[in-house]
Amino acid sequence: MSRSWERQVRKNQQKTNTLRQKTGQERIGTTGTVSQAYDTFKGRNYMFPTFLMIIAIFLTIITVGAQMSGVEEASGASYWFIIVMYVILAVIMFLRRPFLRVGKDRVSTIRFNRERTLLAGDIAKFRIEKGYVTIETKGKSANWIFSRFLKMFKTEEIAQRVTEFAEQHQIPVEKK
């Protein structure tokens, strides 16, 4: 097919998919992007928000103490703005839940504010310990650690699903 014909097909396909989406029908012509069913395991981040709240309380104590002692520089609104921003950041980090999604041939999680995905071929092995599930990767990328203590994951359920995933793709599982 010529390039102009391919562009025309793509343009018409986008229009059709937009109309089909509005009527609740499935999209057509999406080659390679098959929707997968994922098992999602959610945790709760409480360590970093607690650290941010401690900083906010510390800054509040210092600011109030400085204002009481008559320091003119501590009476500005910028100090209170910084304290409020620490509190807001702590709330956002607490409400934003970390997760592990296990699909048919991939696992994904959110790391460094992006969703990261590992295909089954990129996984070296799974290590299952009491309270921890570790996904060791091939290459130089860092291992993924899911902890009951740090992020409040249900590690028993994750371990069960990861073991099934490993059996399907012949990935070694190390249980301690």
Mean pLDDT: 88
Low-pLDDT windows of residues: none
Number of helices: 5
In terms of DSSP E residues, the strand content is 15-25%
Instruction: Give the SSE order as H and E letters.
Output: HEHHEEEEEEHHE
| Biggest β-sheet strands, sense, barrel | 4 strands, antiparallel
Strand order of the largest sheet: 1-2-3-4
Percentage of residues in helical conformation: 40-55%
Structural class: alpha+beta
Overall shape: it is: flat
Radius of gyration: 24 Å
The overall strand count is 8
Cα distance spanning the termini: 57 Å
Describe this structure in words.
This protein is of the alpha+beta class. It is 45% helix and 23% strand. It has five helices and eight strands; from the N terminus they run αβααββββββααβ. α2 (47-68) runs antiparallel to α3. The mean pLDDT is 88.
Task: List descriptors.
alpha+beta; 176 residues; 4-stranded mixed β-sheet; flat; 5 helices
